[in-house]
Amino acid sequence: MKKSDQKKYWKTNLKYLTVLLTIWFIVSYGCGIIFVDELNTIRMGGFKLGFWFAQQGSIYVFTILIFVYIRLMNKLDKKYNLDS
Amino acid sequence: MDLQTWIWLLVGITFALYIGIAIWSRAGSTKEFYVAGGGVSPLANGLATAADWMSAASFISMAGLISFNGYDGSVYLMGWTGGYVLLALLLAPYLRKFGKFTVPDFIGDRYYSNVARTVAVFCALLVSFTYVAGQMRGVGLVFSRFLEVDINTGVIIGMIIVLFYAVLGGMKGITYTQVAQYCVLIFAFMVPAIFISIQITGNPIPQLGFGGQDANGIYLLDKLDGLHRDLGFAEYTSGSKSKLDVFFITAALMVGTAGLPHVIVRFFTVKKVSDARKSAGWALLFIMILYTTAPAIAVFARTNMIETVNNQEYKNMPDWFTTWEETGLLSFNDKNNDGKIQYVADTSKNELIIDKDIMVLANPEIAGLPNWVIALVAAGALAAALSTAAGLLLVISASVSHDLIKKMIKPDISEKGELVAARLSAVVAVCVAGYFGINPPDFVAATVALAFGLAAASFFPAIILGIFTKKMNKEGAISGMIIGILMMLFYMLKFKFDWFGGGTKEDWWFGISPEGFGTVAMIINFIVSIVISKFTPDPPKEVQEIVANIRIPSGAGEATH
Fold first, then answer.
1. Which residues of B37-69 are buried (b: 16+ CB within 10 A; e: fewer)?
2. Is the interface score ipTM higher than 0.85?
3. C-beta separation of B457 from B523 below 8 A
4. What b-and-e string marks burial along B443-452, b requiring 16 or more CB atoms within 10 Å of the CB?
5. What is the CATH number of the domain that holds B245?
6. Size of interface A-B (CB pairs under 8 A)
7. Measured between CB atoms, does A49 come within 8 Å of chain B?
């Protein structure tokens, strides 16, 4: 693999990481902790929304984030022929 | 069939299954012993990681903790799952590419220093031992309550089982027993949850059920908030911890999860880098099933409990009440002598003390479920405790036989000799763990949660910096790890064990509890590492090339010495 390709590959990876970890931060620390009181004024059936994010929603999003990352990286590996 | 027969039957069948798997998957080489030969499929590894990770604390204690703390219990839910995002995105793929057997192996090689390796071995042993003692205690607890044997006999039976498959099969045996244990524990956790959810809300999916309505059309969570207000507790959905502390505890648990050696080492067992990513995804999916059900169980159990006991005649209590009173996990003291149970927040008036561990274990009895469901919960709790104990024992034995003996004391040891050493250290580790299970030091319960702080304060920064910066050198990493773990130990000893003058809640630095301090110690570790590395020589060229190499997934090769 060429040096310049290595750099590009790593840069794209870091870009994915930044986006996904930002979402990770927002759903847990943001919705579940920092803005929990504001979100609790909104209701979703029997759940207050902030409480739901802290005990349910954040966990679902975490799982989805990992699977999105797996997909993105598999595609990226393919593009640079690293999926041996 | 009566309850005892059911319990012996189900526990017996599951134990026979674990032993059968152990015999079938004996380890023949050090590679099989440490990393199961490196050929585990991502799905199997995901299942094994989930069982490895979900301990007696997750199975027995967590729903109870949430039950008593309501919203504040969210720290465990987010903290113990969010760490997997960090693992999958920041650690697992690169550590797999690096291709070694243990975490100290990575630290020692990446920081080209045996001092770094020794510090890492010390941290790994400290974290794993504090954690494993709690598991053996969990095994003893389940045996004493459900099989009516002495708690010490229970610990010894647990030791023999773990000894059998951990020593015989190493990582290979552990991996496949953990797959079976995951199936047992998740089934045992879900069956009562589904039953109770249907009973209370008519919805078979507990995750939706606890947001549903009871028979009178009142939302369950509103009803529980109301009950809490009436009894003087903090509102269930709001909690009482400070926001800052919730933030720091969640972060410490997340980062700690990502830094726990027995979790990280599971990602060394797959074939290639993309499999490491995949198994992290599977693992969290399997963990998610239990972790999203636990808060539902917490709500059901709490409502059931309050409605069954509060202001009711003591003499009318159901059978389970007296059975649990005998174990000492439930105690009633009729302070106003009216023959009724008053369960309120005000400690001077409260007459009932409930241990959090009861909530999951007694839940099926409280809800009046059939005997086989109660027996299933016993088998599930044992599966959870044994699978985690085995994973931890493997880390301990690998740290001794591989990191200490092979890498430092006697590098010319033969493959066979190392395997013997690994098995012997597993035996010693089981015995030490069993000793702590039988004679639990008071600090066990307190330190299991703190093991995360220790892992966060020591390993996490060293590994992250080792992957994401080429310039991080041994001076920076070693001083960061040492200062991080010392800060964490100091804070923990000061505020949990009253050393160094002790202190109360009011003396906490910035109002951060010892459980949340791991985050502070981790940040300090990062800062110290970065500052020191700026004033000391760069790492050698070869090491910088290793770092460039682990960032590219292809050609991960086999795990090597």
1. bbebebebbbbbbbbbbbbbbbbbbbbbbbbbb
2. yes
3. no
4. ebebbbbbbb
5. 1.20.1730.10
6. 133
7. no
CB B7 within 8 A of CB B138: no
- Asked if B120 has any chain A CB less than 8 Å from its own CB, the reply is no
Residue at B555 is within a domain: no
Identity of the residue in A9, A45, A55 whose CB atom sits nearest the CB atom of B74? A55
Which of A8, A28, A41, A43 should one mutate to test binding to chain B, selecting the residue with the greatest count of B CBs within 10 A? A28
B558 belongs to a structural domain: no
pLDDT in tens, A23-75: 999 999 999 999 999 999 999 888 999 999 999 999 999 999 999 999 999 99
Contact, B425 vs B129, CB < 8 A? no
Q: What are the pLDDT digits (tens) for B493-535?
A: 888 777 887 777 788 888 888 889 999 999 999 999 999 999 9
Q: Does B74 touch chain A (CB under 8 A)?
A: yes
What's the rounded mean pLDDT across residues B22-40?
Answer: 83
Give the nearest partner residue to B77 out of A10, A17, A59, using CB atoms. A59
Range of the domain at B213: 3-550
Residue of B nearest to A10 (CA): B551
First to last CA, chain A: 13
Whether B222 contacts chain A with CB within 8 A? yes
Is the Cβ of B443 closer than 8 Å to some Cβ of chain A? no
B527 vs B180: CA distance, rounded Å:
43
Query: What residues of chain B lie within 8 A of the CB of A28, using their CB?
Result: 78, 82, 250, 254
Q: How far is B390 from chain A (nearest CA, A)?
A: 26
> Is B357 within a domain?
yes
B221: CB partners within 8 A, 6+ apart: A46, A47, A48, A51, B210, B211, B236, B237, B299
Is residue B393 assigned to a domain?
yes
pTM: 0.92
pLDDT at residue number B530: 96
Residues of chain A positioned with their CB less than 8 A from the CB of B281: 63, 66-67, 69-70
Q: Which residues of B touch A40 (CB under 8 A)?
A: 237-238
What is the 8-class DSSP label of residue B38?
Answer: G
Kindly write down the DSSP assignment for every residue of B117-172, as one continuous string: HHHHHHHHHHHHHHHHHHHHHHHHHHHHHHS---HHHHHHHHHHHHHHHHHHHHHH
Within an 8 Å CB–CB cutoff, is residue A31 touching chain B?
A: no
Amino acid letter at B15? Answer: F
Q: Do A56 and B554 touch (CB under 8 A)?
A: no
Task: Tell me which residue of B257, B225, B228, B286 sits closest to B45, measured CA to CA.
Answer: B286
> Which residue type, as a one-letter code, is found at position B114?
N
**Residue B557 pLDDT class (50, 70, 90 cuts):** low
Phi and psi torsions of B349, nearest 5°:
-105, -20
**Residue carrying structure tokens 């524990």:** B185
The total of structural domains in chain B comes to 1
Instruction: List chain A residues with CB under 8 Å of B254.
Output: 28
Distance (Å, rounded) from C-alpha B127 to C-alpha B57? 15
| A22 interfaces chain B, CB cutoff of 8 Å | no
